[in-house]
Specification:
The protein is an alpha/beta fold. The chain contains four helices and nine strands, in the order E-H-E-H-E-E-E-H-E-E-E-E-H. Helix 1 packs across helix 2. It binds inosinic acid and magnesium ion (MG). The site of inosinic acid (IMP) has 18 residues, from strand 5, helix 3 and strand 8.
Length: about 180
């Protein structure tokens, strides 16, 4: 689905499919360089990070392992609750491994700071974070993020994996959701 298919629901397209792909290619080059002599396990956070994982992993030029985790921090609303629940845990043992968490978006940062601490408690060699989007104005906790695709305004966005009430994940671009859709 593209922006034309949902044009009445979007206030603005922030990043086109091509712009997203170009930025992901740059992030992949950074990751390839930083992990050149290390085995890395990339951990995708379901469901939002599915598109980022698919494109980022294919842009990497070296071998990686992939695993998935599902956590829940929201219902179907648009505000973070800070309450994190593990819906699906990793299959992999993290002992002595280099872990890279891949996220779609950091809003308040509450989900990721909880997740990072949780994974760090499992004995990994390192835990770093890669997020496609970050909302600096929404930060409630400071969290060190090694790879950031784009810093965006504090608006609710959808597309490229990001949903509102499970819709728009299959939109090929990232857009600001028009308030009339959720108000
Ligand atoms: P945080 O705990 O506030 O950082 O929330 C992180 C999670 O909330 C993300 O992984 C998303 O699933 C969801 N989220 C935060 N902001 C947005 C948004 O603008 N659009 C869609 N989902 C969002
Ligand atoms: Mg998410």
């Amino acid at each position: 689905m593209d922006s034309q298919d949902v044009k009445d629901d979007l206030e603005e397209v922030l990043y086109t499919a091509d712009e997203i792909q170009a930025r992901i290619d740059e992030l992949a080059a950074d990751i390839d360089r930083d992990y050149a002599d290390k085995d890395v396990l990339i951990v995708g956070v379901l469901k939002g990070a599915v598109m980022v994982m698919a494109d980022l992993s294919r842009a990497l030029t070296s071998h990686i392992a992939m695993d998935w985790m599902a956590v829940s921090s929201y219902g179907s609303g648009t505000k973070s609750s800070g309450v994190v629940r593990i819906l699906k845990d990793l299959d992999a043992d993290l002992m002595n491994r280099h872990v890279l968490i891949v996220e779609d978006i950091i809003d308040s940062g509450l989900t990721l700071s909880w997740l990072k601490a949780n994974l760090e408690s499992r004995g990994p060699a390192s835990v770093e974070i890669c997020t496609l989007l970050r909302k600096p104005e929404a930060a409630k906790v400071q969290i060190e993020v090694k790879y950031v695709g784009f810093d965006i305004p504090n608006k609710f966005v959808v597309g490229y994996g990001l949903d509102f009430a499970e819709k728009y994940r299959n939109l090929d671009c990232i857009g600001i959701l028009a308030p009339h859709v959720y108000q």
